[in-house]
Amino acid sequence: MKITTNIRAPRGNTLTCKGWTQEAAMRMLMNNLDPEVAENPDELIVYGGIGRAARNWESYKQIIASLKKLENDETLLIQSGKPVAVFRTHEHSPRVLIANSNLVPAWATWDHFYELEDRDLMMYGQMTAGSWIYIGAQGILQGTYLSFVEAGKKVFGTADLRGKFILTGGMGGMSGAQPLAGKMAGAVILVVEVDRTRIERKIKEGYCDYLVETVDEAIALVDKLRNQKEPASIGLVGNCADVNRELLNRGIIPDFVTDQTSAHDPINGYVPNGMTFEEALELRKTDVKTYERRAKETMAEHVRTMLAFQEAGAEVFDYGNNIRAYAKEMGVTNAFDFPGFVPAYIRPLFCEGKGPFRWAALSGDPEDIYKTDALAKEMFAEDEGLVNWIDMAQKMVKWQGLPARICWLGYGDRHRFALKVNEMVANGELSAPIVFGRDHLDSGSVASPNRETEGMLDGSDAVSDWPILNALVNTASGASWVSVHHGGGVGMGYSQHAGQVLVADGSELAAEKIARVLVSDPGMGVARHADAGYDIAVKTAKNKGVHIPMLKD
Ligand code: NAD
After folding, report:
1. Of the chain's two ends, which shows fewer C-beta atoms within 10 Å, N or C?
2. Kind of pairing, strands 496-504 and 404-406?
3. Which of 175, 240, 304 has most ligand 1 atoms within 8 Å of CB, for mutation?
């Protein structure tokens, strides 16, 4: 069965389910598959290679039907995108519990996953695809912007990247935030993307300024814009491994080099070089083993070029797609010589429980988001970065699907903000409930030794008790839906992570849940980093009263 009609979440404040939590889960699932939001909705693919919202169309239909019937004291269970049971629980419990792509560790490989997927027993949930809180490219935009700004501060001592040149790869679901984030930071950013249609889409969405076909054109445009100190984004149709090598051969060394192609998946993500894009797609269908080998060989070459840029003085970092691990597997023994973006720039934020918090307006009315923007600017007026961010986002981010806002708030701020928003729903200032959620790439919700937990101070990179505790405490605290996934961001075998979403429908029950969930969820981030010995986390815990039994005075 294939659903060909365009999916679009209902708007407005009329309930079609038996409660706002079920309604929110339904609307956010539909929103994940809105053609404005999803990369390939016909295949149920939301972003990140083959990150899906539901296992297949039968499952999708049944999830929607189950949510419509679900009582306010029942919980729907989702196993890898398929609705498998409904149980009577409690009105304080989550309405949906989701487990996606989890495999027993010794079986946790792409080969085994694809075997199961072929037999329709599993799906890949990525992070926010299978947990129904993807909000389009804005979801990663602020994080990408923050990473570029922090990299700028580190190398040049300034957050203003005017006249600086960033080279990167990938313009898909999440990677498509790079061109706009680089431009917001003031830089000229060149994004190499093998699939022309992806660049065209980002230009249409206002995320990218120019499309060029050749390295010559790209260089000329980069030079011109840098000289004029004009912030701009350019998409170059090509394969990263080839373009990077060509730039090196010509002696062109960018200020910053990174990559966000879907290298986490060497079969259905990364595209090998030495053939056209169309030939690669054909090879993927006809000879998957050769495709995988060629993709990994190309990743090895790609990483060699990144190492050469580093050697030549560029600031090089991995952008969370696990490309270094595949390059190492293919013999690039020093692939990890350049760091991941979390230890390089983001971990201090995680220590304060900060991460990609976001909210979406179920009304569909942008005015609701503008009102929450104004509230955030008023409540956090002393945070100049946050205020600037909201101003820039209002100007530069086009809505995709339900209007939404990303804002990296930390421990102590998330629940205060959400409680105010809940009041605004209650008194009618906002026209319908708001959902609060976050990426699984958050401070206390993920174990991913090549990404979020790379190089932890105490060596606990691979300990995945933390995301499991995170999901358990969010369930115990009454989040609206909670998810536990494996393999997101970096691929099978490399990560375990958890998500939660919470609906502010203006009720007292919602306020109670907000006061619990939005304290314990970022609190897990503070506790996880304090336990690993990070000073900022220890100070945050002490100053803000996170109760950690074994914290020394
Ligand atoms: P996507 O599949 O939607 O897009 C990836 C893009 O890379 C595609 O458009 C594809 O055509 C292009 N591509 C693949 N191989 C290429 C090559 N050799 N040369 C040029 N272009 C190539 O995936 P996405 O959602 O954009 O995610 C990209 C990667 O970033 C994934 O690995 C994902 O897990 C990771 N990710 C990182 C973060 C983070 O915060 N750092 C967050 C989310 C996702």
Report:
1. C
2. unpaired
3. 175
